[in-house]
Design brief:
Strand content of chain B: 15-25%
Order of helices and strands of chain A: HHEEEEEHHHHEHEEHEEHEE
CATH class of the largest domain in chain A: Alpha Beta
Oligomer: heterodimer
CATH class of the largest domain in chain B: Alpha Beta
CATH topology of the largest domain in chain B: Rossmann fold
CATH topology of the largest domain in chain A: Heat Shock Protein 90
CATH superfamily of the largest domain in chain A: Histidine kinase-like ATPase, C-terminal domain
Largest interface: A-B, 35 and 27 residues
Number of helices of chain B: 8
Number of strands of chain B: 12
Helix content of chain A: 55-70%
Largest sheet of chain B: 5 strands, parallel
Shape of chain B: elongated
Structural class of chain A: alpha+beta
Number of domains of chain B: 2
Distance between the termini of chain B: 24 Å
Order of helices and strands of chain B: EHEHEHEHEHEEEEHEHHEE
Structural class of chain B: alpha/beta
CATH superfamily of the largest domain in chain B: Response regulator
């Protein structure tokens, strides 16, 4: 593990989080320690005090029965035959003379007392240990002290401290090691994401971040990042496609526009000639503007901004009104246009765009079928929703071309000569996509069926 | 008519102002939103033509501010093409109509005319031009007392034309008002409906009432 890598691990968010929790744990363990320490100490001190008090009162009772001399004998006996731990005694006459005992004389005290006995003369080789005693002044003015070594208490306190230091230290160590481990694993995965995004920035739009398959948060993040990259690539491809389409497909009408203007400039002899040439130029310019407008509209629809303005649309009314609108035009071009509409079909969407979608389907059918053909528009309830169907009995579209007819500027060879920008169905597809509708082409043998289902 | 034009593109502004003056209108021009609002609130106009994108203050804010200071002058918004939401936001801000750039001048002229002479909002129950009468309650049409049967969309076209009798009504206006289509169909649906309407109301009579104005649209008017 290099130094730089270690630094990165120490600075990583996951490591810091682990460390934070470890410190929090140690702090709470410290609080627990303090509670245990003080409770245990107090309990032990109470215990010791109770033993000493009992001993002192027993001896006071002996004093009441046998007097100072009898008590002295009793204490001497107890000092000699004591088996359960060392107990220290001190019996002082009222004049402070030590009657009996294994402790140096001292001023009388009452009740529990902690003290270090001062040897007289001091014994240099033995370290004086801390004692806990219970002092009692007897009725005749003499003083009795019973004491016990406090080492047991100190030892217990030390044991508690040791246990906590070890456990706390080990926990902290494990936490730091675990944190480093988790951090390094996360860093590895983040590094992969960073590397992939670098690759994409350098131009490899197809690069994707590998998914581990653990379905954890990072996997979810990676999946949505990949989905986003896919969408970006799709948009970029679209953009690239549009630019080259525009370059190719607008060159011809622009050339024609120039030609009309040149005609007006060079060849017009009469006002009528001049008018005809400028009219032709205006028509050409209008067609170009219309193409641009359609391209912009497709781009806008694909960007999906209109979803904000979606409202409830009565699709039945809309399909009927489009059918009605096209009826006379269809008759004039010697087509039979029929429409059949189920009532009460609604959709949340943009009425204008839906109207244009249905109109484009009708126009497409009218334009690409010969005089005498029947084109039929239908809206009907389907198992999962509804279907808008535009069917004709014209020449149809070869199966192999079904996908491509929705591309911008795509036109079948047989329809190169008819008017149209080649954008109508691309817009239909964009509008359907915006509304979450699907489009399929069906071969009706003869004829074509376009079904928009929602 | 006195018209306020707020448009920052000099070429477009000159083109519109020149055309309107040729049709005997008086035109005041402002090339930014602030000056436009100053004129709109200070002077009295019959119609305002306001571009959506303006320096200093955009067209929407201008119209909102003018409406807030109680200026009731009809507003025609000019928008750039492709803005699908523009129509709705423009109407919400207090605009009365909108036109997508680039446009034919005849279209602008017809719309300005229609806005300036907007009929008062009284509920008329019948409309008439010469001997052609429309009963809006019974939804019947007669000419010289003879009953004429119209289809629903033909009735709506005739109603719109009669409401604007004597004014030019463009193809786009009909698409918007009769069908609520705010896009340009490639098929001549307006022309074919007009032709059927014409054969019903004019064919059997001496004097035609429904006229085509070349390069502009249609007009219904009494014979001279």
């Amino acid at each position: 593990m290099s130094f730089a890598r270690l630094t990165r691990i120490l600075r990583s968010a996951s490591f810091r989080l682990t460390l934070f929790y470890a410190v929090l744990f140690v702090a709470s363990a410290g609080a627990l320690f303090a509670t245990v320490y003080w409770t245990a100490t107090a309990a032990m001190q109470n215990d010791m005090a109770a033993v000493l008090r009992t001993e002192a009162y027993q001896l006071a009772e002996v004093h009441g029965r046998l007097g100072l001399g009898g008590l002295g004998q009793q204490i001497t006996r107890r000092m000699n035959f004591r088996t359960r731990g060392p107990i220290f005694y001190l019996l002082q006459a009222p004049n402070r003379r030590v009657v009996v005992g294994n402790l140096p004389g001292m001023p009388p005290v009452e009740g529990v007392v902690d003290f270090v006995p001062q040897s007289d003369p001091p014994e240099p080789d033995t370290e004086p240990s801390k004692l806990t005693g219970f002092g009692l002044t007897l009725p005749d003015g003499s003083f009795l002290l019973v004491a016990q070594d406090a080492d047991r208490l100190t030892e217990m306190q030390h044991a508690i401290v040791r246990a906590f230091v070890w456990a706390g230290g080990l926990t902290l160590l494990l936490a730091i090691a675990g944190g480093a481990l988790i951090a390094s694993s996360f860093l590895r995965r983040i590094d992969t994401i960073t590397r992939t995004s670098r690759a994409i920035m350098e131009g490899d739009l197809s690069a994707r971040i590998p998914v581990r398959g653990t379905h954890d948060e990072i996997d979810q993040l990676v999946s949505s990042l990949n989905a986003m990259l896919g969408r970006i690539q799709q948009l970029m491809d679209g953009l690239r496609q549009v630019s080259s389409d525009i370059a190719h497909d607008l060159r011809t009408p622009l050339g024609r526009l120039r030609q009309h203007l040149e005609d007006a400039r060079e060849r017009a002899k009469t006002t009528a000639d001049y008018d005809a040439a400028t009219d032709a130029a205006i028509e050409e310019a209008d067609a170009l503007l219309e193409t641009f407008s359609a391209l912009l509209r497709i781009a806008q629809v694909e960007a999906g901004a209109q979803r904000r303005g979606f409202t409830d649309v009565d699709l039945s009314e809309l399909v009927r009104s489009v059918g009605e609108a096209y009826q006379p035009a269809a008759e004039d071009s010697e087509h039979r246009l029929t429409y059949k509409v189920d009532d009460g079909i609604h959709l949340t969407g943009d009425r204008q765009l839906l109207a244009q979608m249905i109109s484009n389907l009708v126009e497409n059918a009218l334009r690409h079928t010969q005089a005498g053909s029947t084109v039929s528009l239908a809206l009907r309830k389907a198992s999962a929703g509804f279907e808008i169907e535009m069917a004709d009995n014209g020449p149809g579209i070869p199966e192999s071309e079904h996908e491509r007819v929705f591309d911008r500027f795509y036109r079948l060879d047989q329809s190169r000569s008819t008017a149209g920008s080649g954008l109508g169905l691309a817009l239909v597809k964009a509008i359907a996509g915006l509304h979450g509708l699907t489009i399929r082409l069906e071969d009706r043998k003869p004829g074509l069926g376009v079904v928009v289902a929602g | 008519m006195k018209i306020l034009l707020v448009e920052d593109d000099k070429q477009t502004a000159d083109y519109i102002a020149k055309g309107l003056r040729e049709h005997s209108h008086v035109v005041d021009h402002a090339d930014n939103g602030r000056d436009g609002l100053y004129l709109a609130t200070g002077e009295k106009y019959d119609v305002m033509i306001v571009d959506r994108m303006l320096p200093a203050m955009d067209g929407l804010s201008l119209v909102k501010a003018a409406r807030a200071s109680n200026v009731r002058t009809p507003v025609l918004f000019l928008t750039t093409m492709g803005g699908v939401d523009d129509r709705v936001t423009g109407l919400e801000a207090g605009g009365d109509d909108y036109l997508v750039k680039p446009f034919a001048f005849a279209e602008l002229l017809a719309r300005v005319g229609a806005l300036a002479r907007r009929p008062p909002m009284v509920a008329a129950t019948s409309l008439a031009v010469a001997d052609l009468e429309m009963d809006l309650l019974a939804r019947t049409v007669t000419r010289a007392g003879r009953r004429i049967e119209l289809l629903a969309q033909e009735f709506k076209i005739l109603e719109y034309l009669l409401r604007h009798a004597g004014e030019v009504v463009t193809r786009t206006m009909l698409l918007e008002k009769v069908w609520d289509f705010h896009f340009d169909p490639k098929t001549n649906i307006v022309e074919t409906h007009i032709s059927r309407l014409r054969s019903k109301i004019d064919k059997a009579f001496d004097k035609p009432l429904l006229h085509t104005v070349r390069g502009a649209g249609y007009v219904i008017r009494a014979p001279d």
